Amino acid sequence: MKLTELYEKFMVAVDVLATSPASLQKRLEGAYRSFMDIEPKDFDDEEMQTTFEQIRSRLTSVQHGQIDSLAATCRQMSDQEAAEIADFIFGLFLRIVEKHHSSSSPTPS
User: Cα dihedral sign for 5, 95, 52, 84?
Assistant: First the structure.
């Protein structure tokens, strides 16, 4: 996946986290759905891969019958845990923005 695609998907996720009137848990669910097709290998940085894996595993850890694991996990999450994961998403977005900006900036001659 190209850096521009990562940037766009995480931009949507951060927008959902920041602007939706829903509970933080529901906002996390919506944010994750905007980038759920991303794989760790889409990041060219090991630290970013690790952060992404932590986000994904923390948001899909609960299995509950017919409810998908994301929805089930978010329903059982405390506000504090939800805030920590939102912070991870925002931090990863900032790293993507930094890489996106540096790759799209013209190099001085």
Answer: negative
Interaxial angle between packed helices 24-35 and 3-19, expressed in degrees from 0 to 180 and rounded to the nearest 10: 160
Question: What whole-number distance in Å separates Cα of residue 61 and Cα of residue 108?
Answer: 46
- Amino acid, single-letter form, for residue 105: S
> Any idea what the Cα angle at residue 19 is, between residues 18 and 22, rounded to 5°?
100
* Three-state DSSP class for residue 36: coil
- List pLDDT tens digits, range 60-90: 998 877 668 999 999 999 999 999 999 999 9
pTM, two decimals, is 0.89
Measuring CA to CA, how many Å separate 97 from each of 5, 7, 71, 77? 11, 7, 28, 28
Name the residue ranges covered by the structural domains of the chain: 3-104
